[in-house]
Amino acid sequence: MMSLYAKLADNPGQGPYYAPGTTGLESPASQGWSGGMSLSSFVADLIGVINAIIPALITIAILIFFVGLARYVYHSDSKTGRSEGVTFIKWGLVALFVLVSLWGILDVAKSSIFPS
Q1: Do 62 and 86 reside in the same domain of the chain?
Q2: Which residues are CB-neighbours of 20 under 8 A, at least 6 positions away?
Q3: pLDDT higher than threshold 60 for residue 12
């Protein structure tokens, strides 16, 4: 199996991330202030990163909800224990609502502003 370096050495300028006719070793000054990235591609990449992080945050919000539920059930005889459980449940539900809404808004924005 040929290494990536050997493939690029055999085909200069044909690497997956280089513009045609370049080697990828040009200075950033020759690419302009944006570094070769447009605003729309930057925003699309940012939305992609956020979309990759949201499922992990949703998992954490679900865990917070279930921790609150467990505290509520386990400390059902104590008023302060129940109130702590209810607080966890409320914040878990708020976080779930915000994250799922953000996920939907970003999906609509990405599909309507950057259709591709």
Answers
A1: yes
A2: 13
A3: no
